[in-house]
Amino acid sequence: MNKGCRYFESETPHFFKIVLSDALQNGRLGIPKKFVRKYGSNLPGLVSLHVASGDVWEVELLRENDNAFLRRGWPDFAKRYAIQQGHFLVFRHEGGSAFRVVIFDKSASEIEYPVVPENGDPKMEEDEGDMSVEAFEDHSDQTRRNQRQELPSASIPSPSSKKKKTNERLNKQAVGGSSDFALFIGTL
């Protein structure tokens, strides 16, 4: 580091891990030493891993000398998200014990996170899936109707009228102001 320079430090620092076979076989995932040296003293013995689906996993943070590992709870987390050798995980420290985790598979794409209903019964999710979507859609339609009533209709142009006006303006400019041609093109 250049002593004369100032540096910005993120309030939510990140680290990443490429999952190697030993992390799966030994049932623990190492945290980079530099991250541990810089932020490890503030980390409790139990951390929470938050994924995009809203699931939260409690995982033990084990310290050995200068090293730190995600241990108890890590094998269950890895199994749940089908983490394999070569997967890429990005951890963002949200503060306290919380980490946001993004999981990328071997294709370098974020995985699709499995979702289990609150009662933990996968069968229940299949049986009620259609009904809950319908109820949500009905509520959304009602909410949209309520919003439309509250907003004056003249203040927000519809997307189609906005598009038509833009097309007319662009066509006039392209043809040199011939409004008949612009209106013809704008109606297509």
UniProtKB/TrEMBL annotation:
Q: Where in the cell is it found?
A: Nucleus
- State a single Gene Ontology molecular function: DNA binding
The answer to whether keyword NAD applies is no
Domain TF-B3 residue range list: 14-107
Q: Which GO terms describe its cellular component?
A: nucleus
Disordered: where is this region?
A: 114-173
Pfam families attached to this UniProt entry: B3 (PF02362)
Query: Which UniProt keywords are given for this protein, alphabetically ordered?
Result: DNA-binding, Nucleus, Transcription, Transcription regulation
- Name listed for the protein in its UniProt record: B3 domain-containing protein At1g49475-like
Upper taxonomic classification of the species? Eukaryota, Viridiplantae, Streptophyta, Embryophyta, Tracheophyta
